[in-house]
Amino acid sequence: MSEVIIYKASAGSGKTWQLTYEYLRILFSKPEDYKHILAVTFTNKATEEMRNRILEELRQMAAGEKTHLARRLVEEGIAYSGDLEKKASHILRILLHNFSKFTVTTIDSFFQHILKSFAREAGIPFYRELILDDKMVLEETIDQLFFHLNEHPFLQEWLVDFTLERIRQGSSWNVHKEVSRLGNEILRESYPGTLATEQPTFTDDQRKEWQGQLFGKEKKLKENLIEIGQQACQIAKRFGLSQDDFAGKSRSVFAYFEQLANGTMKDLTDTILSALTDETKWFSKTSAKKELIRQAMDEGMQTLLARSVDILRELNKIQALARNFYVWAILSDLAGLLQKYLAEQNLHLLSDTHKILYHLIGRNDAPFIYERAGNTWLYYMIDEFQDTSSLQWNNFRPLIANSLSQGKTSLVVGDVKQSIYRWRNSDWRILAREIMHDFPGRNKTEVLPLNRRSFRNIIEFNNAFFFEAIDCLKDKYCEQTSLNTEHDLVGLMKEAYEDCRQGVPEDKMQTTGFVRVELYDAKTEESRTPLRLVETVCELFSSGYRPEDVAILVRTKNEAKAVASWLLNTDYYPPGIAPPGIITEEAILLSQSPVVRILCSLLRYLKNPDDQLNNLSLLNELFMYLEMQLPDGREYPPVTFTRETTENFLPPEFVSQAAELKKLPLQILCGRLASLFGLDRKEQQKPYLFSFMDQVNEAVRKGISDVYGFLDFWDKNAGNLSLTIPEKANAVRIMTIHKAKGLEFPVVILPDPVWCIDHNPTQPPYLWIKQNLFGNEECTWFPVRYGKQLAQTDFRETWLKEKMQTFVDNLNLLYVAFTRAREGLIVISDKDDKLYNARNLIMDVCSRLNDTIVQKQEEDGKIICCRGSFPEPKAGTLSKGEPFHAQDNDGLFATRFALLVKKHASGYFSEKGELVQTARDEGKLMHTLLSKIRHAEDVPAVVQQAVLEGKISKNEAETIQQRIALVLADPEMKEYFTDAWKILTENDIVLPGGETKRPDRIMVNQGKTVVIDYKFGEQARPYHIRQVKEYMELLAEAGFPSPCGIVWYPHLNRKERIDL
What we know:
By secondary structure, this protein is α/β, with parallel strands linked by helices. The chain is globular, with a radius of gyration of 34 Å. It has 6 domains: 4-126 and 350-448, P-loop containing nucleotide triphosphate hydrolases (Rossmann fold); 135-203 and 326-348; 207-322; 506-587 and 729-759 and 797-867, Rossmann fold (3-Layer(aba) Sandwich), CATH 3.40.50.300; 592-720, Orthogonal Bundle (PCRA, domain 4), CATH 1.10.486; 906-1059, Alpha-Beta Complex (Lambda Exonuclease, Chain A).
């Protein structure tokens, strides 16, 4: 029977092997079906691993090797031992000869392939560029938002409200940074613009009116509550009752009414909620005024209590919406600007693919989709299914349903416990429940039972730990939500970890391994974790482990920095023992390289030699890292770092060439600077230098060709650009748990696991709630901040679901960290927090584990839990680690750079000797020619001169002349190429100190000055406008009348007009 097989694959259970087996199972049954199998996973690395695993198994079988997978195929009667080699060789040959049909791909690549087939229906022009980096486009959009802020007074108000609220919360005053963080909301699937029901568009006036209605409702509800409080207090007074007569006194129902009467609206307590149905919450058993209180209740206090609770819940709801109304308004405007920017720049976001396909697939049958895509897939295999998003699953589901209708079987493989990417839209509930509900009676769950990664003691410890951990979290969840253990959400938590116990394979039964959990008193003044971490690392080295065997896992990059500083602190080491080599995500950032920092400082100097802060940074780097010699008679540091004083310390050959260097193409400029300062001769820094040049090349590919644009690009991206380090580098690895997923290490150390189990209240996420507040025909999605106050509103169910998922998410982090260990697992912590965190959870779980699981020791403010014996030290085995060196030949940089320059030279010669222009080179040529043209009649002469200078061939001249004439015929621009203007082209603006600026075209006529700058890059960018604005300011200072500016993009048929 056709069905969907759901493999539950806990950590180390061999899911890649299982996928490979299932893939070959189909091929050995029907070799021609290779073209009908679609296997998808989530990363390029996983895709490569799976594809190589399939080919390697076939190669081994074809070579006669009796692999475990081959024996399994024979045992199940899928293949016969007599012709196994021949059949494997045949299948391997088919795959290699038809490699394009061997479809093992990432989920994004698959859906992008489908979307290309539907580009016309989706309204996507064929020439649109696919953008992988959503955040880069978002930053460009936010730049546009701030640049045009004066044109949007309502948006200014929303931003002021947003900023004031963030300041009240103690967040950053950097508005741009905060808006960037907020803007990430529109890239999430949870944002209403990515849901099936699109967010309606509203005007500023409508939104302002609705905000006023919200505040009006809030005011009215508060007045009602004050009135209720006053009425209840009057009733009590009539019966001669006071606060002391009621049960709980200051926490009594009467005290609650007094607070309402005074205008104090607090959260509803359990006492107040219980008093709605339980009269014993009003008075104590021994109360002398029990009957009077009953009479007061009957006279209206009971009714007033019920009314107040309803109104207070409504007030909490209105306040949750009102406090975030400006967030909704800002995001609505930003989303609109983003769509406008994408259309103008002919861009398409990769993240939009799933949304577009959701609408298309929902309207079409699966066979039609296959036909358009040019494939007929019958078998689906989805890896890492716990990381699938709702939209992705909505797009896959009809395809799998069609496969089932064809009598074929599909499979998914995943593990809810390893779902740690919900911030990337993954939804583990699909694997936990939804897929089974989607295919009732046509699904089968298989659990891969054995852990083939870890040693026995680690497997048995993790089995017991996580079985208890989910119980601890379930109890904590029920305590904080007042739910009972039979609630569906509590049941879903338990289901997530129902398969957490794994078996020990026979080949692991004789292994031991060790676990050590050290929890120190968090109240001591000085942290013990740094010293204990270093001592533990030294113990491991003494026991024979090498630095590359040890991984230290942390939650955030900032924690990785702290751990690295501990390991490098020589004060923690015994005499004669040096710190080991370490590799961290932060340490391999390009921006941490002194060579890269010097290059960037030099570029900034060329951009603005009067930037004293940059001059200070540049000279410090040169003297500290390059150990540059001080000029005779100079003392460092100088009193100031002006242009003049800085030039006194820089090499004369650089200072004298500065003006010429600025005119060089960006790639050649960076290479010249590296050579001039000897940066290309720093052996250990060559990997950083090469990677930096790759980024320069990438920037140029994106149309950024000058220093201004590159520095803007660098400032936005430097925090994410890093080296790729060889896996075998002998150094201790420090990495985040998210980066470690899918990896394994002999020993894992987890220092100070103190991430919150719930959301941190200082940075709660936004939840999107569908509401019809103002009687509109359509409901509107509004953002509310996650928090316990939502428990007392209509949004309680949304809050409960988010809280449950967050609890599981943060337990999953602990699961992923613990299961990376092969031989040893060590936890060290002495930190604590007022909020319930992972350390608290570890303490609670360890207190529940019995002596058959761990040996416990409590003394002197510390708790140590052990399973297995820590390895004994071995004489003479302490490894200090080896620093990471990049092996490179002296001439490699020059060779590589020469190739890079050659690739992007002004043009190549074809076999016929004619110049072949790339699009970017053609843009540069057009820019050069337009800069020389004063009037439209000059075009033929300028083009002929270009032929004489060898810039273009005779065959190209006529075409280029026609294209320029077409550009100059633009109705909006042709007036600027007439005799009516006094025209200056290729004229420098000389600044004090000698620096020059060169606008493409300056025109003066009747008290007006116009600056034109031509741009032929692939897209318009905000710094283009900043550049022209700077020219205008300089011309105004020089006395030119009323400067205005135009950034002209002839190839985009676009002009940006700028006024001072």
